């Protein structure tokens, strides 16, 4: 392994940890069913761990089959009254939830960071504000559904099961719950087993907002809980975000059943840098594209395509910039790269990085002192990558970027599309016409120009090919929660 040391100036910063005095977590959380927290039927509680310290933050109830059934019954019972509410009244609940998220934003940001490992700067400035923004956005749609679907008559689907991953726990919950509720559905949310805490705080917020019991239930647990929810009778729709393998399994389980499905799966997105781009700006975009949230991002720009004429220059600028990234305590306000979400995810990253080295790619890893406890992986750059290498094909879901080169625009498009995924892409060029031409030729759900990882509740997000189907965000995000009548 070639681990290169920092070549650049290392800035010394005094620690700047965010205060967590305002966070009032309970030692133990139950399941949120029928408007209140209750004991799980099997009395099973599992610790939720801080991945930066391996310490237990709180114990969380795991749902069993009987609990899934109870949540479905409660959601079914709540549905007729929820859908009968005037649309404006439903909107008021969503506005209330959005405002409560804002009120508790400092607390939510800290909890998101300690439960998931992401830098506080990101949870504070991205995850939590965007979660509130999704509730605000869909609150606005609740009495205008009709306009979101070309003035057709619509009705909600009924009870929706929503399964979310660990990379943006509260934000993914908001992406799913806000449109579902705005459309008049009732929902059962299954958070990821490593990051249940902000979903449980969101359950508290729903109670504080006096959301009618049964409209939202939160059932923490492992994959088995998700699997039970998918197979349970009484569900009208499943919305899933996570790995392609589990997405495929869910699709097979639902085949032949009258249950709607949307899947938001993995990606291996191409970030394409043309020779005419503003290269310093592109380097910032590359860093944001792959090191944001430790690379635990489905649309991460993990395949970096650089035009050959500027390859060496971009790599040298990127490597220098990587040396300035601060890795460590996620609660420190200066941290750029936090902890890997779990031991299992760290092992997946290490396996794929080892495969990259074995297959002959050249690895450069930023040398830095990593904390002794917790799960960490230093930012890593692979060059001399061939399109067939596993690190160019498979989703690593970590702070690892694989560089490929191209000579012409046509070759860039061909290489970018040479993936079983099609979630996102980035294009860096000064030429507007080129950006449009390339964007039109890319089979990717989201294409950013001269920026990356830019999210907005008013814009649709979703994939092509094995990145899934269905759209979340904006008016397009209403459609998966509605039945169009005529
Ligand atoms: P999973 O797809 O396993 O998990 C996503 C969610 O589905 C979690 O809530 C999980 O529960 C649940 N789940 C797991 N198995 C089942 C099942 N059989 N039926 C129903 N629900 C299930 O992702 P992982 O957390 O294991 O991550 C693995 C890989 O997936 C990552 O390395 C990454 O490549 C990709 N991924 C992609 C994401 C994206 O946003 N597109 C997000 C997360 C992961 P539990 O947490 O208990 O496993």
What does this structure look like?
It is a single chain. The protein has 486 residues and is an alpha/beta fold. It folds into two domains: 28-265 and 467-485, Aldehyde Dehydrogenase, Chain A, domain 1 (3-Layer(aba) Sandwich); 270-462, Aldehyde Dehydrogenase, Chain A, domain 2. Helix content is 38%, strand content 18%. It has helices spanning 65-84, 87-103, 105-116, 120-141, 145-148, 169-182, 197-208, 223-231, 244-254, 279-291, 311-322, 343-358, 390-393, 409-417, 432-441, and strands spanning 28-29, 31-33, 36-38, 45-49, 56-61, 154-156, 159-163, 186-190, 216-218, 237-241, 260-264, 270-273, 303-307, 362-365, 380-383, 400-406, 421-422, 424-428, 446-449, 464-465, 468-469, 482-484. The strands form six sheets. It has a seven-stranded mixed sheet with strand order 14-15-16-13-12-18-19, sandwiched between helices. A six-stranded mixed sheet has the order 9-8-7-10-11-21, with helices on both faces. The protein has a three-stranded mixed sheet with strand order 1-5-4, with no helix packed on it. Helix 15 (432-441) links the parallel strand 18 (424-428) and strand 19 (446-449). Helix 3 (105-116) packs across helix 4, helix 4 packs parallel to helix 6 (169-182) and helix 10 crosses helix 11 (311-322). It is globular. The termini are far apart. NADPH dihydro-nicotinamide-adenine-dinucleotide phosphate binds at residues 163-167, 190, 192-193, 222-223, 226-227, 230, 241-243, 246, 249-250, 264-266, 298, 348, 395, 397. NADPH dihydro-nicotinamide-adenine-dinucleotide phosphate is lined by residues 163-167, 190, 192-193, 222-223, 226-227, 230, 241-243, 246, 249-250, 264-266, 298, 348, 395, 397.
């Amino acid at each position: 392994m070639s681990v290169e040391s920092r070549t650049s100036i290392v800035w010394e910063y005094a620690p700047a940890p965010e205060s967590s005095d305002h966070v009032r977590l309970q030692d133990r959380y139950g399941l949120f069913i029928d408007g209140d927290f209750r004991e799980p039927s099997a009395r099973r509680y599992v610790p939720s761990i801080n991945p930066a310290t391996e310490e237990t933050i709180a114990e969380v109830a795991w749902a069993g089959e009987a609990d899934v059934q109870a949540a479905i019954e409660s959601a079914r019972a709540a549905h007729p009254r929820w859908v009968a509410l005037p649309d404006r009244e439903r909107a008021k609940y969503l506005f209330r939830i959005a405002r409560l998220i804002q009120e508790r934003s400092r607390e939510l940001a800290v909890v998101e960071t300690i439960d998931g490992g992401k830098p506080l700067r990101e949870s504070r400035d991205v995850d939590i504000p965007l979660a509130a923004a999704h509730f605000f956005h869909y609150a606005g749609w609740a009495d205008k559904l009709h306009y979101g679907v070309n003035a057709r008559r619509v009705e909600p689907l009924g009870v929706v099961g929503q399964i979310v991953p660990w990379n943006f726990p509260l934000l993914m919950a908001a992406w799913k719950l806000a449109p579902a509720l705005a459309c008049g559905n009732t929902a059962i949310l299954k958070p990821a087993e490593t990051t249940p805490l902000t979903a449980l705080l969101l359950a508290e917020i729903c109670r504080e907002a006096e959301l009618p019991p049964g409209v939202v239930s939160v059932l923490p647990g492992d994959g088995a809980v998700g699997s039970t929810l998918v197979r349970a009778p009484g569900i009208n729709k499943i919305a899933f975000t996570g790995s392609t393998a589990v997405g495929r399994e869910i699709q097979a389980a639902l085949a032949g059943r009258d249950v709607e499905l949307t899947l938001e799966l993995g990606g291996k997105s191409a970030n394409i840098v043309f020779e005419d781009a503003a290269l310093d700006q592109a380097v910032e975009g590359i860093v944001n594209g792959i090191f944001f949230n430790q690379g635990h991002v489905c649309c991460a720009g993990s395949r970096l395509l650089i035009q050959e004429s500027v390859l060496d220059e971009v790599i040298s600028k990127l490597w220098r910039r990587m040396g300035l990234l601060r890795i460590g305590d996620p609660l420190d306000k200066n941290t750029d790269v936090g902890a890997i979400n779990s031991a299992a995810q760290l092992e997946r990253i290490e396996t794929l990085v080892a495969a990259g080295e074995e297959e002959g790619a050249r690895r450069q890893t930023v040398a830095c002192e990593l904390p002794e406890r917790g799960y960490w992986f230093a930012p890593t750059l692979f060059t001399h990558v061939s399109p067939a290498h596993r690190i160019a094909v498979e989703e690593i879901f970590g702070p690892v970027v694989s560089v490929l080169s191209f000579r012409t625009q046509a070759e860039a498009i061909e290489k970018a599309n040479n993936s079983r995924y099609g979630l996102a892409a980035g294009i860096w060029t000064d030429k507007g016409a080129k950006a449009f031409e390339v964007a039109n030729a890319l089979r990717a759900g989201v294409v950013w120009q001269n920026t990356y990882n830019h999210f907005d509740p008013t814009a649709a997000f979703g994939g092509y090919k094995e990145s899934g189907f269905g759209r979340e965000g904006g008016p397009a995000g209403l459609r998966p929660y509605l039945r169009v009548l005529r």
